[in-house]
Amino acid sequence: MPFPTIALDAMGSDSAPAPEIEGAVAAARELGVKVLLVGLEPKLRAALDAYPPAQRANIEIVPATEVITMEDKAVRAVRTKRNSSVHVCARLVKNGQAAGLVSAGNTGAVMATSKLMLGSLAGVQRPALATVIPTAGGRAAILIDVGANVDCRPEHLEQFAVMGEIYYRVVLGERGAAQGAGPRVGLLSIGEEEIKGNDLTREAFALLRQLPLNFIGNVEGRDIFQGDVEVIVCDGFVGNVALKISEGLVETIRGLLRELLSSSLPSRLGYLLARPAFAAFKKRLDYSEYGGAPLLGVRGIVIICHGRSNAKAIKNAIRVAAESASRQVNREIETRLSRIGQPAAQP
Asked: Cα torsion at 185, 223, 150, 140 (round to 10°)?
């Protein structure tokens, strides 16, 4: 079955449009997905024409006359730059010309544009941004929400748990528990006991416990990367802080390793012997393997990539967007929320 059409914001990344075009060509060639390349047409045409015709046969350029930069204020840019590449991508999804969009642009602007133009799925009060993280157990895990909602109510966390569990199970295609009970879902708090945490986590705990999920209770920050839980639920404030700390720690570890391994001749010789292990370590922490972060709960598939995304990350983000659409993640979210009696979407 051929993959759906995906709209790609070709002006979003720090090095745009080179990574986007290279990633789109790779996705079209390796995955058979059709890509709508959205951005400043003269710039895109010149870059795309460098590839042989056979490699760009499944790629179409859709013009946009404006670009939202990382320096733009998200809400203001969404209101004033109505023909930006992000806007055009969302319009293509809304009109049914694309099943999903991928962008490595201004995260706030991509989220705001997607929520404003696409709206929420039935039963979803707050769309949430999830991110895929590596764990010591070898599996990936989902952390949700990581910044879409700073202030949350318990029922929002309940919905995040449902959406995160569906995304993990349907898109990543992995089972969480050895007994086959499904991905393990944990609530991020300051202690494992049910009474630990603030009012939000304690009330959310009571709701999550009643869901038809493999809920294992509270988990602490130290548990995120251990591989004992596949879906970690939290509000966007806590999730974003946890994500940024994790990213900073990874960069610090990489820098320290480079410094220590080049500090002396024995260290350099040791590195040569251990190179395969270091290569595996680098791959395990490579964000490009996972593509990007899904904005779950909007009408349409939205994948938001890191601004530093390379061609591999863009290709994998397109793959994830296409798989999410093909496997009908949004339909399952609506179905599941309707079964547990969630209220209708609120503005």
From this structure: -60
Q: Does 169 reside within a domain?
A: yes
Q: What is the pLDDT of residue 280?
A: 62
Name the CA dihedral angle for 38, 39, 43, 45, rounded to a multiple of 10 degrees.
20
**pLDDT averaged over the chain?**
87
Q: Provide the pLDDT for residue 140.
A: 86
Any idea which of 168-172, 214-218, 254-258, 335-339 has the lowest mean pLDDT? 254-258
Integer Cα distance of 134 and 225 in angstroms? 7
d(C-alpha 303, C-alpha 309), whole Å: 12
Q: pLDDT tens digit string along 151-199?
A: 999 999 999 999 999 999 999 875 444 445 789 999 999 998 888 889 9
Domain that holds residue 240: 128-288
306, 228: one domain? no
Cα-to-chain-centroid distance, residue 110: 12
Q: How far is CA 176 from CA 189, 338, 340, in A?
A: 20, 24, 22
Specify the pTM.
0.89
State what percent of residues in the chain have pLDDT above 70: 88
SS3 28: helix
Indicate if 202 and 277 belong to the same structural domain: yes
Count: domains in the chain:
2
Three-state SS at 39: strand
pLDDT at 271 over 70: no
**Residues 89 and 138 both lie in one domain:** no
Distance CA 182, CA 170 (A): 11
| CATH value at residue 179 | 3.40.718.10
DSSP per position, 281-317: HHHHT-GGGT--EEEETBSSEEEE--TT--HHHHHHH
